[in-house]
Amino acid sequence: MRLLIQRVSAASVTIDGRVKSSISQGLLLLVGFEETDEKEDIDFMCKKTIYLRIFDDENGVMNRSVLDIGGEILVVSQFTLFASTKKGNRPSYIRAAKPDISIPLYEQFCATLSEMLGKPVQTGEFGADMQVGLINDGPVTIWIDSKIKE
């Protein structure tokens, strides 16, 4: 499982010209799954996301989590996080989980994240052609892979 976490002032997902979801201060998460992902990966990534201290405290030091600031979360499925560019110029997505595996993982990830956050997370629409808008605050962008826990 891979996450690209972006600290945002605002973010939104638009599908077919209509805004499906939007948030103010918080996190935009782009999430991708592979065939071997399971509940343990989801639990690890949710906990890491909720408690990741990347928001400024009163001294301007990144010392607060999204939970600490009462922030919001927008989750967007992103199978291209597993792109392989080893050969040629056309990425291969062979490591990305197929929809029959990734949709339940995505739904479980969003549900677990909502439970830990104590409020609903906003989402994109799995498999849809989405336009994602964001104001990256900082900018702060962090990449995490559940199989690399260093």
UniProtKB/TrEMBL annotation:
Q: Does this entry carry the keyword Hydrolase?
A: yes
The cellular location(s) given in this protein's UniProt record come to: Cytoplasm
- GO terms under biological process: D-amino acid catabolic process
Mainly resides where?
cytoplasm
Q: Which GO terms describe its cellular component?
A: cytoplasm
Family that this chain belongs to: Belongs to the DTD family.
What is stated about domains?
A: A Gly-cisPro motif from one monomer fits into the active site of the other monomer to allow specific chiral rejection of L-amino acids.
User: Under which name does UniProt file this protein?
Assistant: D-aminoacyl-tRNA deacylase
Source lineage: Bacteria, Pseudomonadati, Bacteroidota, Bacteroidia, Bacteroidales
